[in-house]
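Appendix B, record 7
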Amino acid sequence: MPERIKRKKLPLHGARIEDYAVIGDCETAALVSLDGSIDWLCWPTFSSGACFAALLGTAENGFWRIRPLEKIVSRRRRYQPGTMIVETTFVTKEGEVCLTDFMPPRGEHSDVVRMVRGVRGKVKMHMDLVLRFDYGLTVPWVTRHEAEVRAVAGPNMTVLRSECVGGKAAELRGEDMTTVSDFMLRAGEQVCFTLTYASSIQSDPAAVPVENALRDTQKYWCAWSDRSTYKGKYAEAVQRSLMTLKAMTYRPTGGVVAAVTAGLPERIGGERNWDYRYCWLRDTSFLLLVLMGAGYTEEAVRWRRWLLRAIAGSPGQVQSLYGIDGERRLVEWEAEWLTGYENSQPVRIGNAASGQFQLDVYGEVAVALSRTPAANDDLKTPSLAMEAALIDHLCKVWTLPDGGIWEMRGGAQHFVYSKVMAWVALDHAVKRHEQFDGGGDVKRWRKNRDMLHAEICAKGFDEKLNSFTQSYGSKMLDASCLRMLLVGFLPADDPRMVGTIDAIQKELMKDGLVQRYNTAKSKDGLSGGEGTFLACSFWMVTCLWLIGREEEATAMFERLLMLRNDVGLLSEEYDPKKKRMLGNFPQALSHIGLLHAAFALSGQWRPEWIESGK
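Structure tokens (predicted):
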């Protein structure tokens, strides 16, 4: 039975990005630090306002921490095998405790469950809960009744409950606008806390049966991870990446968010701080290939349904990203009350890139529609008819400049990769409509396809650099040109592709990692630099393997695996000088790149993943 102890104040220290693990219920997700603090959680969905936002501000912006009161001698952490359940073990001079964090598969409500168990000795424990809705801005009205604490602000309500296995629940009390609890744990004792979200106009949610919830969560994730058909030496990394991407999938619609966070900087103190809690077409079109390759056809079909609903409408209004329900208006604004991660401002919510014209999305849609099985929703939005309308529109607009894959804010350009993906869209459409007699204007599409291929080779390739460049007539290199090989624009033995790979290695590889482009020389409309974009390095691995430099590819891939954190997660970028993660976390595109490279190096790359090039 836990006993009451005298409380001692503890400072709240900020955590590095790599110090976090992610838990989720496939509708939202939380970040848990090595210190036992949940510093980021958006409720009720990925794109809702955060109720814990200390990640982007201070303790006053909301967090939930459980940890020993005395000095921690050591700590270790892991995911329970095959699950998204995190175990953090704290060792003090007095003993050892294990904190287990998870979010059960969502039923009527969403829950965070935190179970802390005494392993040996006796350990004084302390719990702090600071709820601040609306991204750390709004202080809720809090009431307490016995072992329950209710917090309400506008439409939001949470209920905190505590219980002790075999004894009295830990006492919850208010202190300085904070809910706290102090208790002692001996070996074999266990105290559990559950925090449940509900609408404030609903009745209080029912209490969570903690042990049942743990078993249900274990069963759910183990059953999902066991479905993987990947067989290879990188099974652990593949499984963790697949599960992370599953946790970032919004179950009601099938959309996959690019990250569960907003505002984490691409450079500490810089302004490149974006909101990634939305669904990018270019990210998940490549994800579909590995989902299919790993045996997750159902997930691929669900994403196809999301895609068809999202892009339905005027072909001229197709966007590069959408909300988790397919929303189009993702208005960008700044949360001025947040100091930013390590004082990196502004903290942007929403994403103005949703309003950019980005030519490559037509190719992403074509790849997705051609490589996934038809879904029932195809009857509502027939994919061949929709594709025909999109391609007809593409024939009118592919000559225009666009914002590019990196969503630059320095003005539209004729980006080479954008043109390549427009070619991919035309190429796929020609082949699909010839195969299925879709009734499209194939003759016109074929003519535009061939014209575009010739133009890219003439205007996008620099003879002196022996490389494709960032845009027509430019001398700038861009790692997105690596994807030209991955989408089959040219075959692997074409000297222009080999030259491009060599040039990018020479000019854009720093400390063994690939930069997107040279930010110091670019006109991207932003000041300051960034870290190295991890997905680009994984693209390089796959390209090296495809051109036959397998030993070099393997060595690079295994170095990249060492950049994952202790529980196998990757952020958007990495600073090789300071040896720390940067950018939003966990990042879908980084894990997708890892999966593609792992499939290639394991001999499970499928020839149909690349169409025959010219």
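Remarks on this record: The mean pLDDT is 91. Residues 416-436 form the longest helix (21 residues).
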